[in-house]
Sequence to fold (274 residues):
Amino acid sequence: MTQPPAVPSPSVYPRRAHEIDFRIHGDDMQFVEVDLDPGETVVSEAGAMLFMTDGVQMETRFGDPSSEDTGILGKFLSAGKRLLARESLFLTTYTASRAAVETVAFAAPYPGKIVAADLRELGGTLLCQKDSFLCAAKGVTVGIAFTKKLGAGFFGGEGFILQKLEGDGLAFLHAGGTITKRTLAPGERLKVDTGCLVGFNPSVGYDIEFVGGLKNTFFGGEGLFLATMTGPGEVWLQSLPLSRLATRIAGAFVRRKGEGSVLGGLGNLLDGRE
Fold:
């Protein structure tokens, strides 16, 4: 009996996106260092660059630099999608312009972790929260995806618009605290705090669920809804969303002002804070 030919692994085919090498440095305040061979390019959000060697050419581009064959209209559509996601209309490219390996580094904007996502190994598409994209090899398209379910759009913590990364190259995401990856089997459900979701495969179902119970709703501290993720696929979660960190900082600032209003500087001195 003749056996059907084996299907090659995706890793057998050459990438259409640029091949880049990288190193992630640090623990809680990480940055990623990218090595570029001559002519290679990496794309990043504006303001993410930490340093670059002298042979790196920096250029700010309107729309998505990985979609160069779309013309002026395509660039405007690409920029408009980023505007809907509350992102900058511009992305920045860094290209090795000399006949040597050049290096450029990108820093995380707040304490957390950087994770490298190989889109070729993830089926070519990754959905992620707004503001999580840090940089990617040229050839990875940075677009948007709309939440299909009304409830998830209103109460899922990410709104109706998610970032969508497409291609077969490396992309780097940043999130707060520690990032963990969960692999869900078909039909397996995972309940997640709405602010802790970082990214997931398109095969994962994304919806919301009412917390339930009077005490849970008003005193549980998790809000009215939880995000529900249904497999199959992979889900990335963050342990410290920026919104949670900002709330704690704002609360501490308000408490300090209130405590200092009675005793003034003497109260701070007695409390050991001055």
